[in-house]
Amino acid sequence: MNEAAAPRHALVSLSDEVIRLNGRLRSLFADARRPDGLGDSEVTVLNAVVEAERAPTVPQIGRSLGQPRQIVQRAANSLVEAGLIETRPNPDHKRAVLLRATAEGIARKRALDARADALAEAVAGPMDDAQVRQAAAALRLIRKDLEARLRQYERARETEGA
């Protein structure tokens, strides 16, 4: 029986919708990834490295994506082996190296982007482009705000536990 759900916190409802949307989008753009032979995690890490303002570390990518460091590390190792990213020493940390895209990695990412753009164009049809861009901008703001709040929350928990 499908009864009306009890009122939920807006963040929980947003999470449910984003999870469902993520599944649809991953399915849609799987064809864009296929020619490169890259899996979801490799594409995600390559995107994080290529699009980063500064060279990220594996732990930074993991925190940003909400993924365990080990999963991100496996994807990064695969991308290093494929010559799509490289590691550089991190002056701020002895073990957490910086990840940088190689010229091949950037080229592959841009080719993937072009295929994804073509798929989006074919599927989006009459969707309102401005509305989609506005939704993406709103999600970006929510994500950044949530990331800052999570850092504060985690620091407070560490202080309480100390």
TrEMBL record:
SUPFAM superfamilies found in the cross-reference section: Winged helix' DNA-binding domain
Task: Write one Pfam family the protein is assigned to.
Answer: MarR_2
Q: For the HTH marR-type domain, which residue ranges apply?
A: 31-132
Q: Which SMART domains match?
A: HTH_MARR
**InterPro entries in alphabetical order:** HTH_MarR-typ (IPR000835), MarR/SlyA-like (IPR039422), WH-like_DNA-bd_sf (IPR036388), WH_DNA-bd_sf (IPR036390)
Q: What is this protein called?
A: MarR family winged helix-turn-helix transcriptional regulator
